[in-house]
Specification:
Blueprint: E1 3-8, H1 16-29, E2 33-37, H2 40-45, E3 49-52, H3 79-91, E4 96-101, H4 103-116, E5 120-124, H5 140-161, E6 163-169, H6 176-184, E7 189-191, H7 199-211, E8 217-222, H8 230-240, E9 245-250, H9 262-280, E10 286-291, E11 294-299, H10 300-305, H11 313-321
Parallel strand pairs: 1-2, 1-4, 4-5, 5-10, 6-8, 6-9, 7-8
Antiparallel strand pairs: 2-3, 10-11
Helix pairs in contact: 1-9, 5-6, 7-8
The protein binds 6-O-phosphono-beta-D-fructofuranose.
6-O-phosphono-beta-D-fructofuranose binds next to loops.
Length: 322
């Protein structure tokens, strides 16, 4: 292997730049050439390539987003699209790929590397923390910190006005951010995609709080909550429970931006470094992740098929009690 390509795909996550930097600098240090592929898999199809040197990743470790841009590419889901991508890789003499992203990114990588025998190592980068094989994904810690900052601010105004706030956080299929935010933000209740919460149960819980003279409350609702999101839940609660003035706050895409935390920068650097070493060791169709405090690999197929839920029963129980 003489040259590797690196790309970011799917939703951006803080720490992706730190990871790109680690991939580029590790590869250069080991005598490889590195090509940056712009806009994820779309860039493979469009041959949107740029050679990277050590300076092209200067001053990015602290920046959110991804300097390589990202996209959710439908064409790469077709065999024809992947054939164009492969021809472009061959023409550019790229021998292996490092892909940074989430579930969709790994699914594309799995198809591609099977069809065309191209070595690929995946790095888990998504704020959702919903990938098997790594205790934490790049961006999750930063998103949690962003969310908690927002909740603390909302709590100030909730308490001052004696209001009930429904705060919606990201996570179409994953309740990791919601559970973490609920615990760290001292929420009254947490509604998750993975667990059904009946509106009537939520109401009786809020009534208990009112009886205990709680003057304000915050309910965290994950974007993919089974009831249908914060606006819907707020409307349904209001129909039967009007003890408080009720407000809804959707945190939205601000959760994906911002400077990565120290944890995410170090995690991203470790995973980028490990990915290049795995390619050089001849390993392919794997992902690298952090388990315990060690870097471990997982077959990419397992990373996408194992839907083990990361919400530990201990945490769920604790959240209810506290
Ligand atoms: O996968 C990360 C994520 O932020 C999810 O939590 C969210 O549901 C989704 O991306 C939003 O995607 P988009 O920015 O494409 O609307």
């Amino acid at each position: 292997i003489k040259k590797i390509g690196v790309l970011t795909s799917g939703g951006d996550a803080p720490g992706m730049n730190a990871c790109i930097r680690a991939v580029v600098r590790t590869a250069l240090h080991k005598g490889l050439q590195v090509t940056g592929i712009y806009q994820g898999y779309q860039g493979l199809i469009d041959a949107n390539f740029k050679e990277m040197d050590t300076r092209s990743v200067s001053n990015i470790i602290q920046r959110g987003g991804t300097i390589l841009k990202t996209a959710r590419c439908l064409e790469f889901k077709t065999t024809e699209g992947r054939k164009i991508a492969y021809d472009n890789l061959k023409a550019a003499e790229i021998d292996a790929l490092v892909v940074i992203g989430g579930d969709g990114t790994f699914t594309g990588a799995n198809f591609f590397s099977k069809e065309f025998e191209i070595p690929i190592v995946g790095i888990p980068g998504t704020i959702d923390n919903d990938l098997y094989g790594s205790d934490y994904t790049i961006g999750y810690d930063t998103a949690n910190n962003t969310v908690i900052e927002a909740i603390d601010k909302i709590r100030d105004t909730a308490a001052s006005h004696e209001r009930l706030f429904f705060v919606e956080v990201m996570g179409r299929d994953s309740g990791c951010i919601a559970l973490n935010a609920g615990i760290a933000g001292g929420a009254e209740a947490i509604l998750l995609p993975e667990k059904e919460t009946a509106i009537d149960d939520l109401i009786s819980h809020l009534e208990d709080g009112a009886i205990k003279k709680k003057s304000s409350s915050i309910v965290i609702v994950a974007e993919g909550d089974q009831n249908g999101g914060a606006y819907y839940v707020a409307k349904k609660v209001k129909e039967k429970f009007d003890h408080y003035d009720t407000k809804v706050s959707i945190l939205g895409h601000l959760q994906r931006g911002g400077s990565p935390t120290s944890f995410d920068r170090v995690l991203a650097s470790r995973l980028g470094f490990a990915a290049v070493n795995e390619i050089l060791a001849g390993n392919t169709r794997i992902t690298v992740g952090l388990r315990g405090n060690e870097i471990k690999t997982t077959p990419i197929e397992e990373a996408i098929s194992n839907k083990e839920i990361k919400l530990s029963p201990d945490l769920l129980e604790m959240a209810e009690i506290l």
